[in-house]
Amino acid sequence: MGKTKGLGWVILVLGVVFLVGGLAVKFVVLPSQAKFPADVDSTRNYEGELAVMLNAAALETGDFANLFLKNIPVTIARTVKTTEVGGNDGAIVSDHAVMSSPQGPLAESLSIYAINRTTMDAMEDFSGDVRILPREGLVIGWPIGSEGRDYIGWNGDTQQTTILTFVGEEERGGLNTYKFHAAEDPAVIVDPELLAQFPPAFPKETLLALAPALGIPDEMLAQLAPALEAMPDPVPLTYTFAFDKTYWVEPTTGVLIDINVMESRAVALAVPGAPAPVALAEVQHLEYVTTAASVQDAVNDANDGISQLNLFGVYVPLILMLLGAIGIIGGIYYVFVLGKQEEEAAA
């Protein structure tokens, strides 16, 4: 074999290697990158107003005049962290939120989820953490490569699914985003952690004494009197949850850029024979949006993610496949054209 033909075979083999490498990056490496990262540790901040909140301290002391805190400016710091990966493409994710007023913390919550890192849907727990409850749909965010369609989400208060309706495309933070909306009328709260924040029952005497502070009209009390008479003492209380939320999601990365939230929780009576619990008063009404700084942080994360996905999904595969094509064409030319000419000259 002549030197030219030998060189041609080397170039041809390298061309095939580059071509296969480009395809591998696009169809093997990219999918491994296009999933919820194993090292997420991100904090987003929100600001809004707590229009109403039950004052547990006033309730315990009988200070009914101050039973509710009202119109308090609040901030919410929400930290999402990957704590474990495993199972069938799964991750364990913690979602810790602290709501504070200018005077200090008011409330906090911690939810632990098991999710599929690709679809972002809740999955069966693989970690043995008893805090992970059965859930369905999206629980912590949107998938990389989000589509312009409705998704199934999760309502933690009522432990039921909800529809995340695709509204359309809209600019947010200088990026093109997909806008989603979800809303639910009042439904009974069943989340035990949340219910633990509210009194499970009131003595009838206390409930009647609370009526003015709760804002219950005398006409409603008169209508409820027969039902209250028949109910046990203390009277068991039911709590309901209603919400209206709008989300702006960067679709390529699934990064949540902004959110606008209204949440309303109310105390109600499960009156025998009534088709639904009878609402008495709101015990919490919260509205908030993402701070400008956190919107910018989300935009930066989205831009970084887009660059990373383009690197492994477009640029690196394209360069490798281009080099591969050049190598294959060059190798063929060296082997079958220049190599043949070299052999004929030698003969």
Characterise this structure.
- 35% of the residues lie in helices and 39% in strands.
- It starts with a helix and ends with a helix.
- Helix 1 (3-33) runs antiparallel to helix 6.
- The chain is elongated and about 115 Å long.
- The protein contains 6 helices and 12 strands.
- It folds into 2 domains: 3-29 and 312-346; 38-306, no CATH class.
- By secondary structure, the chain is of the alpha+beta class.
- The longest helix has 55 residues, at 292-346.
- The chain has helices spanning 3-33, 56-61, 192-195, 204-214, 218-230, 292-346, and strands spanning 41-54, 68-86, 90-101, 104-116, 151-155, 160-172, 175-188, 201-202, 235-236, 238-250, 255-269, 278-290.
Task: Give a quick precis of the structure.
By secondary structure, this protein is of the alpha+beta class. Helix content is 35%, strand content 39%.
Task: Give keywords.
two-stranded antiparallel ribbon; alpha+beta; 6 helices; 10-stranded antiparallel β-sheet; about 350 residues
Low-confidence stretches: none
Task: Please provide the count of β strands.
Answer: 12
The helical percent reads 25-40%
Mean pLDDT over all positions:
86
